[in-house]
Amino acid sequence: MNISANDPAKKTWVSVPENSDFPIQNIPFGVYRDNQIAHRACTRIGDQVIDLCELFKAGYLEGLGFEQSDFTGASLNTLMKHGKKGMRNLRNALSELFEESNPELRDNEPHRKAAVKPAEKTEMLLPVEVGDYTDFYSSIEHATNVGTMFRDPDNALLPNWRHLPVAYHGRSSSIFVSGVPVRRPCGQTRPDDSAPPVFGPTRLLDFELEAAFVTFDGKPAGEAISTEEADEYIFGMLLFNDWSARDIQKWEYVPLGPFLAKNFASTVSPWIVTLDALEPFRAEGPEQEPEVLPYLRYSGNKNIDIDLEVAIAPENGAETTVCRSNYKYMYWNMNQQLAHHTVNGCNVRCGDMMASGTISGKTPDSYGSMLEITWRGSKPVTLSDGTERKFINDGDEVIMRGNCKKDGVRIGFGEVRAKVLPALLN
Ligand code: MN
Description:
This protein has ten helices and 26 strands. With about 425 residues, it is α+β, with helices and mostly antiparallel strands. It has two domains: about 5-125, Fumarylacetoacetase, N-terminal domain (SH3 type barrels, Roll); about 135-420, Fumarylacetoacetate hydrolase, domain 2. The radius of gyration is 22 Å and the shape is globular. Manganese (II) ion (MN) binds near residues 135, 208 and 210. Manganese (II) ion (MN) binds next to loops.
C-alpha cells in the first residue's frame, strides 16, 4: 500500500498552528461555500480551506481521471464515485502539491489566491449526500450500561450481543452538519407507569458520542463484503452526535427499536478524514469472547486510536468537558460492521453512513452519553458556571472533538457542535 501522504516527516509551505487538526498528513475532504461559491469540494491544511475546483482548473490535478464537475457538486458523492484508488491518488497529489519544497503552487500567487482561503471566511456544508444511515450499538461498555439501567444488571447484554454487531436503520434526511441548531423534539412519553402516556417536549434530551464511516459504492445486491475487503469500500470517518430523547425512546422502542427518539436530528463534523489518513493510528481491538462466526473473523489491527471528548457550553457560558473516550474501545470494528451489514446481500451505496453507536469507556468519565454519565439523572454533572445538568437544556451547545496522535503527528476531525433550541409548542 503506497500512501505517500502519510509520511510523518512531511512538511508544508502552508502555516499550520500547533495542535491543529489539519497538518499535511491529514488532507481530509469536505464541501464549502463562501460569498462567491455555492458549493465546492475542498480540503484543509492548518487554517486554510483549499478549493479543489480551482486547483483542477489551474491544471494541478491533471492525469488523475477527474473532471471539473467532480469538484462542483453539493456533496462529495460525485468525487467519491472514483472509489478508493481515485481518492487515494487525489490525496497523494494534494500532499505533493503542498509539500514544503514544491514551488508549483507555492510561488504562483494568482493560483494560490484563487484556491487557498482562510477557513473563517468559508462555511462548511454537509459533506456527503447520505442515502442510507445505519446506527450500530458496538460499544460493550455502553450496551452493558444501558442494559443494566433499563433491564437487568445480571443479564445486561442480550444473548445476541457478543455474536453480532447489533444495529438499526436510521434516517438520513435529518443528518445535519456541525453548526446547525437542533430543535428540542416533542413526542409521546409515559413518565408515570400507572397513568396513560402524555404528549410534550422531551424532558430527557441527550447526546451520543459516536464516530461514523462513509462508504464508496459497494457490491451489487446479493453479494457480501468480507471483513478482508471492507477497507476498500470505506472512504473515511467523521464525528457523529446521535441526538436522543430518552423518555420518548423508553416508551416507544419495544419491540422494533428507536424511532422518533432518534430520527429528529443527528449532527456530523464537516470533514471526512480518510481511512488512509487514519492507517498509522490503527490499534488492537478488545478480545472477542466467545469466538465469532467465520464471516466476522478478521486479521490485523482494525480498531483506531482516536481520542474523543464531549463538552457542554451553556448559553453565553464557558465549555465544560463532560466525557473523554476513545474509539479503540469499540468491541465490533468497522470491518465487522460492514461484513455483517452485507452478509445477507444488502447492497451499500456511495455516501451511505454507518455510525458506531455510543462510544463509552470503562470509567464514568469516559461514558459517551448523559444517560450514562449521570446514571439516568441520579448523579448530575456540575458545569463550570455552577449549574447542574442531568440531561441537555435549551440553549446548551454540545461540542465533540476527536484526534489521533503518533510519531509527532496529530490529525483530527475538527468539531461537531450544535445548540439546542426550545421546543415548538403547537
Ligand atoms: Mn446511537
